[in-house]
Amino acid sequence: MAPTRTAIVVGGGIAGPVAALALRRAGIEATVHEAHDGTADGVGGALSIAPNGRAALDLVGLDRVGEPMNAIVLQNHRGRTVTEIRQPMQFTWRADLYRRLYDLAVGAGVRVHHGQRLVDVSESATGVRAVFADGSVSEEADVLVGADGIRSTVRRLIDPAAPEPRYSGLLGFGARVEGVGLPPTGDRMYMAFGRRAFFGYQSFADGSGVWFANLPHPYAGWDEVRKTPNEEWLHRLAGAFSGDAVPALELLRRTAPADLVSSGPMEDLPHVPQWHRGRMVLVGDSAHATSPSSGQGASLAAESAVELARALRDLPYRQAFAAYERARRARVERVIAEAHRTNSGKAAGPVGRLVRDALLPLFARMATPARTAWKFDHRIDWEARVLAA
Ligand SMILES: Cc1cc2nc3c(=O)[nH]c(=O)nc-3n(C[C@H](O)[C@H](O)[C@H](O)COP(=O)(O)OP(=O)(O)OC[C@H]3O[C@@H](n4cnc5c(N)ncnc54)[C@H](O)[C@@H]3O)c2cc1C
């Protein structure tokens, strides 16, 4: 029997439900407390699930989600293909992944409470309770898992001096378009370093498609993104891609302002010094947010949630948290650093662009399966026993 019996999971996004499911598999009863009043159906843009994330999701019983995306074709602003990187991924909408996980968790008997925004915790010798914004307090549990995203409250409760997210210099936008007017790209996602911004798109056999763009921009909090009308963002994006030989202008023209999804400032957390304190521990973006350029945010969140559950299955919570951090930290920080370098290329100035374009073929040649295996081939052995340090 697991030494930990009960867990409070704060946050019902992606890491939260995966953690609850994995904890159940480990014999630990988990209850999810989500700040939002309702579910997150229809919210968010596109994300990719890498083979390593796919494998972690398999361990909690989530089968295929989204569309296959088996290659990335990288082009320059002249439309010339620099390289094609073959890598089986799944392309999905955050809302679809979220809904599948939510249904799976609720179906497995996980209790999910909405409208409960954690503001504090109360810890005692026997357990921990979550204190919510409306003044209500949760039942006592053995541990509290902070799966509350990049602006985590649990992170601040663990360490009041914890770092704030770092802005990459890029804003993220995207949309799903019915009738893209382009030939299907099959299972390929096309991406291009334009002269002023980064662009990606995929078009499907049914005529629909999806695009995303990363637009260099001086620091812009969410407030600025929200207060600027979508028409204006579409206009600015069109300006950024004018003259580039990529189908950005065509796709922007076919995007209704109401359909534009702004994912806001692209941010990460390169190093969170403290992942746990007492009975509290972080999982997912709260501990190791990586910018969307990695294509690994959801995958790493799923991996960490499963690893945490394994550790809690086999060890008392203090040792489990240490073992979990030891298993995860170097890996996630390597992915975050890699994505940060990619962002620097996307937000490069005129000189940086020349250097980037000159080096692009070399970097592309380096992205061989052998060199990326550390990232994509990572598999968690659920059955293996987790040992204390
Ligand atoms: C609404 C939304 C849309 C997103 N869209 C995209 C996207 O388009 N593309 C992309 O690549 N990534 C997107 N992400 C981020 C991506 O889903 C995450 O990087 C990744 O999946 C890691 O998941 P996570 O569960 O750790 O964090 P998140 O997915 O951010 O989930 C955190 C959850 O915790 C809840 N929460 C926060 N604070 C509290 C609190 N104090 N008390 C209780 N609950 C709390 C939040 O409401 C949220 O549901 C989005 C995240 C959110 C929340």
Automatic annotation (TrEMBL):
FAD-binding domain mapped to chain residues: 7-159, 274-338
Record keyword Oxidoreductase present: yes
Keyword Oxidoreductase: yes
One Pfam short name: FAD_binding_3
Top-level taxonomic group: Bacteria
Keyword entries, A-Z: Monooxygenase, Oxidoreductase
Stated name of the protein: FAD-dependent oxidoreductase
